[in-house]
Amino acid sequence: MEATTALALSASPTGARRAPEKAPAASLHLRRFSATSSLHLRAAQSPALRSRASPFQGWWRSRRAGGLVVRAEMFGQLTTGLESAWNKLRGVDVLTKENIAEPMRDIRRALLEADVSLPVVRRFIESVSEKAVGTDVIRGVKPEQQLVKVVNDELVQLMGGEVSDLVFAKSGPTVILLAGLQGVGKTTVCAKLASYLKKMGKSCMLVAADVYRPAAIDQLTILGKKVGVPVYSEGTEAKPSQIAKNGLKEAKGKKTDVIIVDTAGRLQVDKAMMNELKEVKKAVNPTEVLLVVDAMTGQEAAGLVSSFNDEIGITGAILTKLDGDSRGGAALSVKEVFEFVGRQARREYILVSGKPIKFVGQGERIEDLEPFYPDRMAQRILGMGDVLSFVEKAQEVMHQEDAEELQKKILSAKFNFNDFLKQTQMITKMGSFSRLIGMIPGMNKVTPAQIREAEKNLKFMESMINVMTPEERERPELLAESRERRRRVAKDSGKTEQQVSQLVAQLFQMRARMQKMMGAMQGKDSPDMNELMESIKAEEQAADGTARRRRKYGNLRQRQLDAMRGFRRR
Ligand SMILES: Nc1nc2c(ncn2[C@@H]2O[C@H](COP(=O)(O)OP(=O)(O)OP(=O)(O)O)[C@@H](O)[C@H]2O)c(=O)[nH]1
């Protein structure tokens, strides 16, 4: 991986990136529904509990069973649906396009039944199918277990990949503005969030800007007392934006770290609500604008995210009442928002960026709020923690074997273009280059711009390697020694001869550097990644060299030439 990273970083920049397109906002139809606030159920799985379906799109109403609260198995319905997919793969040796077709249909059905939107499901299925078929067979891991892992990784990505932390203002109080429809749990979230932040050592103040429901102010005052944070209110007569502004002034005076502004909800997204929110936002310039969404809204959560974002601009979402949701559609619909474009008949959707879920509410108690961890959520959906850790361990062993093999090659100076390709493909399979590079010790000083360049360069280099003969890939010396061969690679890949020569030269430099590093790691010398990075950066600038640059990096070039060992122009 280091080899590939460094090689990519040291190559000259090429190509251009396409900017994502922005689509018009989707229209919304929102419905009011009753909250299943205190009961938890495994509704979808139990025919006995299905007898009274809720009026809202078949959500099953909470019921007490023999006086006992039946607690939901999180997203039980989805979990069960996915199980049938794994079962269909029992007995197969390897995942193929043909044998995954039926399990993929099960996964598709399970996701749709969980109320995940169609374009999200389509993209998900496409991506899982592609990755499942392309996955290397791992010794000792059954194909169905491998598919579980692929689905897990894709679910994690679908929910945002990583934890999205709250952002705090650099100076003065951090303002968190909560928005959302009526009854979704905004007031409760205010108190939960304040309690969470208090535990982090932050001082908080709540601001009661919901003036339409008098009980909301009382509710916030009671909750504020309960969690031990002051509540700023001016009754129901003042304007919400003025209350928020005054609240912020008071918080500044008291040097409070965070203020959380509770706003009024409406039954549906309407102009008056949005205008009022815009005014409040303008008055306090919040660091975070969080949309509070009831988990039971299912895929309509995507529409809410999109319309609130278009109207007021939000920074993330908080999903409440996850404890009463056995389907999971909302959790899977917030980060990836597709919008409908074109004519109905053509059903075209484009991906517009969604928003990260920052917290989830899983009950009515103050402590029932936690940061949203996409990986933990995916594991809960799949209900297959054991299988996942088993596959991960097996992968580790495989990587270790690969690494040992690579180490042998490096030490005997045999690192070739095949190894290079293998490393690149591994990076692609494992995920973003940017994420990986941060994990390499000493590499964290690399800037995002450099990483983007490196990613581009990998593709550029791959295109040249792809047209090399197997022999040339195995023995780069052949290319180093023959101008004819370099010319042919240049012609076939549509690059210049100079670019091919540069690539070959870089491979040799890389060999030399890696040998040096390996030697260092085996105790001969202390490895200095910073020095390595400096040299890579210097090469990057020198690559297309002006005379001045050439003078400046003259010594370096000489060292590179020495390192190339045997690379001669004929
Ligand atoms: N089960 C469960 N109930 C919740 C959760 N969060 C909030 N509630 C309940 O949902 C109901 C409505 O919560 P509120 O905080 O009053 O909602 P709101 O968005 O402020 O309501 P409006 O001010 O009318 O817009 C209350 O009964 C809460 O106890 C949760 O995570 N799980």
TrEMBL record:
Domain AAA+ ATPase: 172-319
UniProt biased composition (Low complexity): 1-12
Biased composition regions of type Basic and acidic residues, renumbered to the chain: 472-495
N-terminal signal peptide: none
Catalysed reactions, semicolon-separated: GTP + H2O = GDP + phosphate + H(+)
Region Disordered, residue ranges: 1-23, 472-500, 539-570
SMART domains: AAA, SRP54, SRP54_N
UniProt entry keywords in alphabetical sequence: GTP-binding, Hydrolase, Nucleotide-binding, Ribonucleoprotein, RNA-binding, Signal recognition particle
Domain Signal recognition particle SRP54 helical bundle: 74-159
Boundaries of every SRP54-type proteins GTP-binding domain copy: 173-383
SUPFAM superfamilies the record matches: P-loop containing nucleoside triphosphate hydrolases, Signal peptide-binding domain
Tagged with keyword Ribonucleoprotein: yes
Gene Ontology molecular functions: 7S RNA binding; GTP binding; GTPase activity
GO aspect biological process, one term: SRP-dependent cotranslational protein targeting to membrane
Pfam families the UniProt entry points to: SRP54, SRP54_N, SRP_SPB
GO cellular component: signal recognition particle, endoplasmic reticulum targeting
EC number assigned by the record: 3.6.5.4
Protein family according to the UniProt entry: Belongs to the GTP-binding SRP family. SRP54 subfamily.
NCBIfam families in UniProt: ffh
PANTHER family on file: OS11G0153700 PROTEIN, SIGNAL RECOGNITION PARTICLE 54K PROTEIN SRP54
HAMAP family in the record: SRP54 (MF_00306)
Protein name as catalogued: signal-recognition-particle GTPase
